Every structure is written in C-alpha cells, then in structure tokens.
Amino acid sequence: MNPDVSVVVPTLNRCDTLAHVLPTLARQTFAPDRFEILLCDTGSTDGTQALVAQLAIPNLTLVEIAHGERSVARNTGIRRARGAIVVFTDADILADTRLVEEHVRAHAMHPGAAIVGWESRVASLEEYRFVAVAPERRHRLHAARAGRLSWMFFLTGNASAARDVLLRAGAFDEAFTGYGHEDLDLGYRLRRLGVPIVYHPAAVNYHWHPESFPVRCGKMELAGRATVRFYRKHRDWRILLRMGVNPISLGVHALLPSNGRIVRACAARADHSAACREITLQHRYLTGVKAAWREAEGQGG
C-alpha cells in the first residue's frame, strides 16, 4: 500500500547536518508506514550514502541524481513520491516530532490548499533543544495565528501540497539555478491556479543555519539577481513591488554608492547594529537587482 505522505529532502554534501536532521524525521508521531522520506542527493561525496546505511531508517530512501540543483532534486522527489501529499524540508532543518502529522491535519482542514508551517531559525543544536521545549522563545517568520499567505511566503523549508497540484502547476522551474526564488516562483504559479496558501503554525521545524555576515551578503546579492529573473519570467510588475524593488528603493540605492562612506560604515558596524545589518543587506540585494537588470538590457531582454 502506498504511503499517505512523501517528505522530500534535497541534499548535496550535507552529511554533517543530516546526521541530526534525519533522526528527527524518523521520530515522527505519524505512523512510519504511512509516510516515506525521499533524500534526493545530487552527487554528494562526503559520506552521505554511508550515513543513510548506518541510520537504517526503514521508510527512508536515498534517491541518487547524477547532477543538478535544488529544483532538480525536489522535482525528482515529486516524480518519485508515492504519497498524495508532498512535504518539503531541507538538509539543515530539524523537524518537530509532529511535523508530518500537522501537515496532514492541515490538508484535512483546508482541502486543495498548499500549506506553509512555522520555520524557526536556530543558530546551534543547543538553541534547537532549548526552543523545542520553549515555544515562546522561537523565532517567528509569520503571524502567530493561522491564515492565508501571499505567494511570497511559499518557502520550501516547511511547506506541502498535493502531488497532483504540484504537477499541475509545473513543479519547480529548473531554470532557477544558484540561490533564490525557485520556491516563490512555484508559490506564484500555485496562486495563479487558484490554490490558496495557508499558514499552519502547528507544523513546526527548526532551520539550523548559522552563517557569517559576508555569506548572508553574498546571498542577498544573488537573491536580487533572482528577483529580476522571476520578474522577467512573468512580466508582472507586482512581483517587483512585493519584492521591494520600486523607484524609492532604487533611488535611495543610487544615492549610496557601494564604496561610499555610509555603506562602508554600515558594513563595519553590522556585527553590533541591527539597523546597519539591514541597510547593508538591502544594499547588496539592490546591487544584485541592478546588476541583473543591466545584464538583461545588454542581452536585449
């Protein structure tokens, strides 16, 4: 008999985090014979295969893919899924014990909807263990209550949808390479199909993702580039407005050159000032937007 749910986890050389992540998926309150875990590996060389063999989780399948990025891995998972519901998470995300059960409950409450759960960021395993038993200390991305969300919040670190709905929407666009927005693009297409996106905060997981500030800055610039790709695909100006690209933000960016005193001062103080961090990150984001726009114009796009 086929399982009810397929949990799809893309990975590439994340053996270190998977050693902690996979056991949390094995400790679900949902019956293990009613869901499968598809670990979609796009070419790991760090011992991931040996780890999967060592853990010997009965409902875990390692799906090996010759090459590709996250969109390829997730699409392979969708195609291989035997469950009617597909839950997406990532190789650095620790699952609450009720994650799968709550996604199933949310789909029963909201038939035909896509579901987004509560993804709480943690900087360490120690913080994860603390906030797992102290919900009031968890980082909150959305409002506390359940409700409808924009496509902007279809983030596949903690999201689910019916497999047939995902296929009808065209699944993930594999042209989105590198970092950014392949999940938002799918959320946008789901909404255009009339699929509501519902926030279900009882479905909780913990994004164990410590990263340096320079790495965050690099990702913000890539995200800016992805925003332009996203807009050019759909030619919907509301995408730019929702993503913070407007005449005011672009005008402010033009007044703050990257090598100027203000930007350099904010970057130097980013470790100690939330305001400086935000200014620096947004500046890098818009730098990426403008760079991608110039390249598109140069190609006649």
Q: How many structural domains does the protein architecture include?
A: 2
CATH class of the largest domain: Alpha Beta
| Beta-strand content bin | 15-25%
Gross morphology is: globular
In CATH terms, the superfamily of the largest domain is Spore Coat Polysaccharide Biosynthesis Protein SpsA, Chain A
- List how many beta strands DSSP finds: 9
- What value does the Rg take, in angstroms? 20 Å
Q: Report the average pLDDT across residues.
A: 92
Low-confidence stretches: none
Write the layout of secondary structure elements.
Elements: E1 5-11, H1 15-26, E2 35-41, H2 48-55, E3 60-64, H3 70-80, E4 85-88, E5 93-95, H4 99-109, E6 114-122, H5 125-132, E7 147-149, E8 159-162, H6 163-169, H7 182-192, E9 197-208, H8 213-234, H9 237-242, H10 247-255, H11 261-268, H12 274-298
Parallel strand pairs: 1-2, 1-4, 2-3, 6-9
Antiparallel strand pairs: 4-8, 5-9, 6-8, 7-9
Helix pairs in contact: 8-12, 11-12
Describe, in plain words, how this protein is organized in 3D.
- The protein has 301 residues and is of the alpha/beta class.
- The chain has 12 helices and 9 strands.
- Strands 1, 2, 3, 4, 5, 6, 7, 8 and 9 form a 9-stranded mixed beta sheet that branches.
Which short descriptors sum up this protein?
12 helices, 46% helix, Spore Coat Polysaccharide Biosynthesis Protein SpsA, Chain A, globular, 301 residues, alpha/beta, 9-stranded mixed beta sheet, single chain, 2 domains
